Structure to design on (538 residues):
């Protein structure tokens, strides 16, 4: 099954893009989950959908070829991120209200653009659920740049990012530029989301950012381990999901997320068994 | 006298509906150990946040190490244990080691002269609060008091010049509270760290602190703790704004 991927150019691009996304989505996802902001990914992915639909509309009506829908998706996602940061400032005590506002705006715009472009077509379908055959060389290069940027960002700002996620007040006192780092972080999130949509689709981006992290948190002993295990889970899900998706002709968004959910289920089961065996052993030792 | 580490001049502060601080003036000098007391809602936490630069100054000025707080770059010189230090998200996947390491700001003189590795600093700080054995434990698995001690370790790991603690002993058992006050005295006397301690435990701190600051919207007393101790209950309640006999201890 893997052979098919590595032997056809387009599929190979998809596979590499999948591996990159499997790295950066859980990487940023870890910070998002521990900050209890899992919904941000959902909000932004729907804004990205509006951008993609806008790009498709422009392509169709004006045969505008300089910017692909992928580009307009990225642009919308970043603008959405900036709006969220702003709203969070305005509604300090109800920061989560930014998410439904931006999410509904994204869906509203998407409906308008899709209707103007004469309805749902295969492109929209693949943006919603992901696709195995959608990544061009140029897109792969862009995803590679995004990944490089995101990894560099986390490596260089690991300590402030960790401190801000754990205890914002203490981080501020120790001189960390909270506003700047929050801003950069949400822009990075927007980039990761627009890159991930190529593989898993709008509806399931947030799953790829949170499911591997949820699994990882059950077994990791430290924050660093949480990041590392969530990336491993993310990559396993992408590899299995893409190959089975290709083989059974199912959009990979579905297969990747189901694989992620199975990994979570197995891990919980494993922890449960470990726990019971531990109690039994203690009982035996006590007897 | 040398320049004060912190100087607060004519500071007033209000939240939406109410004035919380009115015309506050005081200095904190290098090497002192200041006890900040006052009833609930008297503005202690607000005053501290103004001193740390995390709450915006509305009126008056605060200077830290001679610089206006708005322009002051901390870089580890001031540290803080907040009143709700253990209000972090429950189940946050971080070890005690990782939490304490947050307190280490690079290019800063380390706690132990000569020995510089982060690991040694962390172990040393945890030893001070008797939490060394918990190095690799998950922070969420500790009891409230143990967590509080880890946050104290995080605050001292970088050897700050000024350490501000907002009710740090809430939830710490009495044996460890005594030990903790001794630790603060040691930090103050041996390492020369200037301390500001917010507490309701007036009875026990008067033996440790060099200055006592009574706050209730405005400053009602600032000076030697013995001066405060020698007052009658009646005089004190007048300063305090209400009766405080519930908090004074018999020694
Ligand atoms: N963010 C805020 N917004 C509005 N009002 C606030 C805010 N923080 C504090 N207050 C109000 O300001 C007053 C002083 O609060 P502050 O937290 O400074 O008191 P405190 O002396 O630290 O009290 P405690 O001993 O209970 O910790 C209180 O009446 C409180 O209701
Ligand atoms: Mg307080």
């Amino acid at each position: 099954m893997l052979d098919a991927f590595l032997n056809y150019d387009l599929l190979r691009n998809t596979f590499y893009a999948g591996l990159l996304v499997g790295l950066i989505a859980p990487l940023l996802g870890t910070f998002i989950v521990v900050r209890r902001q899992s919904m941000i990914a959902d909000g932004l992915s729907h804004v990205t959908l509006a951008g993609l639909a806008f790009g498709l509309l422009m392509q169709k009506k004006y045969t505008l070829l300089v910017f692909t829908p992928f580009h307009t998706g990225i642009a919308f996602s970043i603008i959405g991120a900036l709006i969220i940061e702003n709203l969070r400032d305005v509604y300090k005590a109800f920061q989560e209200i930014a998410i439904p506002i931006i999410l509904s705006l994204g869906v509203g715009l998407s409906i308008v653009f899709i209707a103007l472009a004469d309805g749902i077509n295969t492109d929209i379908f693949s943006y919603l659920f992901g696709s195995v055959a959608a990544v061009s060389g140029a897109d792969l290069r862009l995803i590679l740049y995004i990944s490089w940027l995101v990894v560099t960002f986390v490596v260089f700002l690991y300590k402030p990012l960790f401190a801000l996620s754990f205890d914002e007040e203490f981080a501020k006192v120790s001189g960390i530029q909270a506003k700047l780092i929050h801003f950069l972080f949400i822009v990075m999130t927007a980039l990761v989301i627009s890159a991930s949509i190529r593989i898993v689709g709008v509806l399931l981006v947030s799953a790829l950012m949170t499911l591997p992290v949820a699994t990882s948190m059950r077994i990791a002993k430290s924050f660093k381990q949480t990041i590392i295990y969530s990336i491993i889970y993310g990559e396993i899900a992408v590899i299995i999901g893409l190959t089975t998706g290709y083989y059974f002709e199912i959009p990979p968004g579905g297969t990747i997320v189901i694989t992620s959910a199975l990994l979570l289920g197995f891990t919980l089961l494993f922890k449960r068994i470990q726990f019971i065996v531990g109690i039994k052993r203690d009982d035996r030792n006590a007897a | 006298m040398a320049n004060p580490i912190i100087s607060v001049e004519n500071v007033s502060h209000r939240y939406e509906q109410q004035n919380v601080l009115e015309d506050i003036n005081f200095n904190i000098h290098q090497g002192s150990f200041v006890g900040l007391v006052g009833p609930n809602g008297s503005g202690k936490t607000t005053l501290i946040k103004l001193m740390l630069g995390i709450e915006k100054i509305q009126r008056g000025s605060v200077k830290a190490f001679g610089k206006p707080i708005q322009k002051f770059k901390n870089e580890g010189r001031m540290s803080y244990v907040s009143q709700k230090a253990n209000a972090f998200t429950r189940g946050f996947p971080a070890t005690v080691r990782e939490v304490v390491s947050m307190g280490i700001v690079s290019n800063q003189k380390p706690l132990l002269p000569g020995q510089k590795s982060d690991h040694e600093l962390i172990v040393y700080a945890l030893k001070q609060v008797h939490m060394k054995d918990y190095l690799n434990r998950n922070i969420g698995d500790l009891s409230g008091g143990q967590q509080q001690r880890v946050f104290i370790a995080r605050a001292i790991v970088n050897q700050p010049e000024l350490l501000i603690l907002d009710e740090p002993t809430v939830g710490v058992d009495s044996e460890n509270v005594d030990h903790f006050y001794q630790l603060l005295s040691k930090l103050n006397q041996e390492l020369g760290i200037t301390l500001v301690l917010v507490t309701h435990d007036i009875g026990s701190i008067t033996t440790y602190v060099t200055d006592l600051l009574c706050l209730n919207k405005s400053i009602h007393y600032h000076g030697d703790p013995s001066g405060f101790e020698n007052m009658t209950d009646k005089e004190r309640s007048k300063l305090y704004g209400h009766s405080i006999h519930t908090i004074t201890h018999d020694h």
Q: What stands out?
A: Chain A has one domain: 2-205. Chain A is about 85% helix and 0% strand. Residues 2-205 of chain A form a domain with the ABC transporter involved in vitamin B12 uptake, BtuC fold (CATH 1.10.3470.10).
